[in-house]
Amino acid sequence: MSNQDIQAAWHYHNGTKHPHGPLMDPWHSFDPMKQPLPFKIYTDLDPIYLPAATQPLSTPALAAVSDAASPPASAHIPDIDAIARILHSSAGITKKIDYPWGAMFFRAAACTGALYHIELYLVCGDLPGLETGVYHYGPHDSALRLLRRGDYRGVLVEASGHEPSIAGAPAIVVFTDVFWRNACKYQAREYRHAYWDCGTILANALAMSSALEMPAHVAAGFVDASVNRLLDLDPQREVAVALASLGCGSVPPPAPSLQPGPLSLQTVPISDREKDFPAIREMHEASSLADLSEAASWRVANPPTPQPKLDGPVVELCPLDDAQIPQDSIESVIRRRGSTRRFAQESITLQQLSTVLEKSTQGVPADFLDPSGSTLNDIYLIVNAVDGLASGAYVYHRGPRSLELLAEGEFRYQAGYLGLTQQLPADASVNVYFLANLQPVLERFGNRGYRAAQLEASTIAGKMYLAAYAQRLGATGLTFYDDGVTQFFSPHAEGKSVMFLVALGKKASRQ
Known about the structure:
This protein is of the alpha+beta class.
């Protein structure tokens, strides 16, 4: 199926809606005692242990979240210490909780169901402290394992249609999705989660790169088969979903002389059984790029986004200024970040909400968001408890940095219902919804636009996580009743589709 046959994206999106999407089995059950192994473990490769950080970074988290490092005048080559910081702060283990049935390891970024189905690989030239090669990152022991020796960056340059950020990168991180790890609980909806969870990891990676003053850029357009072949993935079970360039170099990588051959490396089975959900593979294949011309055409600039008319009452944002922002470093915030399990029904301030919105929406450096500052998603809010802001439904306008009131009222009940009848969104101070007008996105990018819309929404939401925790607030990502959210915010949101939901507020004290 061609990427341009956009009925595939609509079929998948409508088929995986809550509550009665036809691609979902209402009788499906999940046994947490039998969940898959959350790590990819190569049995025959020696670990290259990554160094632990010795000197903390001083960059405040809110500055790292909002700022993107500009390409320097000269080459910026990351060393192994920088690589270690970025990988650990993206997907490393930050805490362990012991349960009667065993230990639970939590990661640096949020993940649906704490099932950790996103794997990270590194493709690099010669770096200070690390030889050129293709590596897999193992969070379980904070180590790299060499899969291929030699400079294979040229494979990614060609696969990306010569995306400039990839062509000039000393190091590239490849993010992959292991289907069964997440589908074991969420069935065919897993493919949405692939981009949700990749995005929250990317938010951490981009913030750490900013703190290190290292340019970083996301590429979602590439020839899928070429990247999967380089990493020796079984595309029936694991596929590449995004690339991120790190640093910039003065010498381009060599053009690939041969296509990488199979490696036949042994890994520990993640489960004693795996159920196939064909809809996942079908959507991935339908949104795959087949050749270099398709990858290159991905980078055609987006048409300018017209500024929406403001019809309702408007509240201007009042974020913290640089002298007021908390000085907690990005690494310390990532270490203490978690997904809030209970919110207190208490107010946050308009200044705190303004800071979250302001710092997280400065733009995602990505190949599908050109020119800089483009967006595929609109941001809607249900405000339950914010001092200085009337409770109600709002839409956020990035240009004038303001909130437009759509409907004033007490909507805690509706927020709880829309969040799949959970108490968390009802108790939260604010619920933030990302909605995309999918039809023009799919017409522009084909089915792959569905990946892009999910990825942008989740990356911004990941930044919101960090911006909330930097202010000692809580945050959690939630699922939702798709059509119910659109209907709630209509007529303003008529025709739009929900990509992500994140709840913000004060964490309830433990009893």
